[in-house]
Amino acid sequence: MRFGRRPRPRVGVVVPVYDVEEYVDACLDSLLAQEGVDVEVVVVDDGSTDGSAVRVQRFVDAGHPVRLVRTANHGLGAARNEGARHVTADLLAFADSDDVVPPTAYATMARELRRSGSDFVTGSVERWEGEQRWEPPWMRRMHRQRMAIAIDSEPEILGDVFAWNKLFRRSFWEGSGLRWPEGVRYEDQPTTTAAYLRAQRFAIIPDVVYHWRVRTEGTSITQQRSSLQDLQDRWTTKRMALASVESYGSTKVTKVFRDRVLPGDLHRYFVEIPGCDDAWWELLVSGVRELWSGRSLTHSGLPPVHRLTGWLVEQGRREDATAVMEYAAGLAGQRIPRVTDDRGTRIDVPVIDPRTVDRAALDVRDTEL
Hints:
Layout: E1 10-17, H1 24-32, E2 38-46, H2 52-61, E3 66-71, H3 76-86, E4 91-94, H4 105-116, E5 120-129, E6 132-134, H5 137-142, E7 147-149, E8 166-169, H6 170-175, H7 188-198, E9 202-213, H8 228-248, H9 251-261, H10 267-270, H11 278-291, H12 304-314, H13 318-330, E10 338-341, E11 344-347
Helix pairs in contact: 7-8, 8-9, 8-11, 12-13
């Protein structure tokens, strides 16, 4: 009896497109250059106003395994959901149209899925800014070793919220009722959180499987944090993710999520405090008070200067929060000065009297994010 070679894994990749004609060719080229797998690429043109769809059509006309689906503009979540409906492959991935996937990424993840029997696999990423690429230390830490687990074993992985560094079994995706929220930004977190919680087992690998481009011209939707709508969307998706975690019912997972995952990106908003308008400030305060009600950000894993700022936000001390953020910005990346006393080591921020602050907001800890 003759046995044939194992068939190559088949990966369906959903690529939402909206006004990215400068980048989309590089994205599609990287998907078509994947080694060791067969790909079907479903591009969803989300009502682009530039030449993005024309560029994609050239790949279709050239006979590449690329399908172009056109829709009115409904946003990233809706475009991803539409694309997933057209995928026929057993494995499902998502890629953003301004990013690039390394040539062995999907083969590496597919091999891990087969080896571990997991529902999905997540790998590390490199941040790509200008001519430089680097693996963020927090991503390297979360993907430090290869393992197949359930969420109770490694709840901090909930901080890896990205859609595009993962490969799902389509049967799991559809059977678990996963879909992306529509009409809201930051849709990655609620859905990836649900995936971790619903999977019987998922795999973590240390391999870099995605190159995440940070656009230097500032046009990405995640670079508009000073707008009221952006902050509203952030609070909405955090509420959704937290509700899923609390419904899961694990005290350990909930504590790690609330203390170490949920606050992880707050510093990006704290830097907007100087110069923010009244409505944005009030929304920031109300969101922080709601999400960390009964458990102050002083318990979080944020670095001390951001833990301090978070506590000042909780207290509604706008002038002090502004002063702290302006002082930190003036250090241009240098470490906040520290002092040691009989209670340990704390940061020394000269623009605020430490006697007027909860000491827990100033202490330097070994477990900071």
